[in-house]
Write a structure and sequence with these properties.
The chain folds into three domains: 47 residues, no CATH class; 116 residues, no CATH class; 130 residues, no CATH class. Helices cover 37% and strands 19% of the residues. The protein contains eleven helices and 13 strands. The strands form five sheets. The protein has a four-stranded parallel sheet.
């Protein structure tokens, strides 16, 4: 139980009354309005228990594009610090996840944007020509790349959440051949026991992303079902712990309808958890202080509850008026 009181006679009376009832932990926090007493009942049962991997991290997959220039797998210092964070999830994804192609042959590598286009980009920048902030070319992840990151994660006690490329498509359907290659190799190497997956990154932003094809919530839900069947197929029979499927990794859970429609279309038990991204888009001089204000995270909590409620309603409403909802998503709001 947590209670907050401002300083003053009333606050002290309330504090004394509670102290007679139970064992309390009290913290005094200074604010612009005066002192605030945070009172915690240490004998009450916990309201929620976080996962052991609650403290986790993400690495942008563009490190693969740039051949891991800022990441040393063999660094003793990095490995020591990483082990200190374990057990943790490592999410390896980002905008470039939808441009990454797994190439088993180490000698067959797509030229990276850094190797191929940096001189051109520098000239454009000097001329003041506006540029899209992310490279728009596909690039390769080799077997060596995949071995390095999986072996590193296993050594330090991390579990990887890897974003598969949802932009590899055959018509309106996800093209699964490249994922099959990656999963088959991962199964043979024993990597799948410490791997989970997402399909695509921020699909609600595909319409504004340069070079990306639109993937509707209905299409992505169908693609997730395909991936789920693949993860539970005989191909993965050697895996003692099956990979989990997470998603849809939207950029904004309450600014659009993508999450809602995706969950309505999604079949039961396909995803183990719904995922969304939280951004602080407006930088201000007092932003750090604002981020530490408890009330500031209220909309994140509201979004989490909305995702949970949508998941519960999924079984009841998934088949109701789906064609109309898919059309509404495509219409501007």
């Amino acid at each position: 139980m947590v209670a907050a009181f401002r300083s003053g006679p009333t606050a002290m009376t309330s504090l004394q009354g509670i102290c007679f009832l139970c064992v309390l932990w009290v913290a005094v926090v200074p604010t612009e309005q005066g002192l605030v007493y945070l009172i915690v009942n240490t004998t009450a049962p916990p309201l929620h228990q976080t996962d052991s991997r609650f403290l986790s991290l993400g690495i942008d997959v563009n490190l693969v594009r740039n051949r891991w220039q800022t990441f040393d797998f063999h660094s003793t210092r990095l490995r020591t610090l990483a082990k200190g964070l374990s057990p943790s999830y490592l999410r390896l994804s980002g905008t470039d996840a939808d441009r990454l192609i797994y190439k088993p042959d180490d000698n067959d590598i797509y030229p990276t944007e850094r190797q191929e286009a940096m001189p051109v980009k520098q000239k454009l920048r000097q001329r003041g020509v506006p540029q899209y902030p992310f490279p728009t070319t596909n690039f390769s992840m080799t077997t060596k790349d995949w071995d390095n990151i999986n072996q590193f994660a296993q050594d330090v006690g991390w579990r990887i959440i890897f974003g598969l490329n949802a932009q590899l498509r055959f018509g309106d359907h996800w093209a699964i051949e490249n994922a099959i290659q990656l999963l088959t190799y991962s199964s043979a190497k024993g990597y799948l026991e410490s791997l989970d997956f997402e399909l695509g990154n921020e699909p609600d932003l595909y319409p504004v992303g340069k070079g990306f094809r639109l993937v509707t919530p209905k299409q992505l839900a169908r693609d997730y079902t395909t991936l789920k069947k693949l993860l539970t197929s005989e191909l993965m029979s050697k895996t003692a712990v099956s990979p989990k499927l997470l998603g849809p990794a939207v950029a904004d859970f309450n600014g659009g309808n993508y999450m809602k429609f995706f969950l309505n279309y999604l079949e039961n038990d396909v995803v183990a958890a719904t995922t969304f991204h939280q951004y602080y888009r407006q930088w201000r001089a007092d932003l750090c202080r604002e981020l530490h204000r408890p009330g500031h995270s209220g909309h994140v909590q509201a979004g989490s509850r909305e995702c949970e409620d949508r998941s519960k309603q999924q079984q009841q409403t998934r088949h109701q008026d789906l064609a109309r909802r898919d059309l509404l998503y495509l219409l501007p709001t």
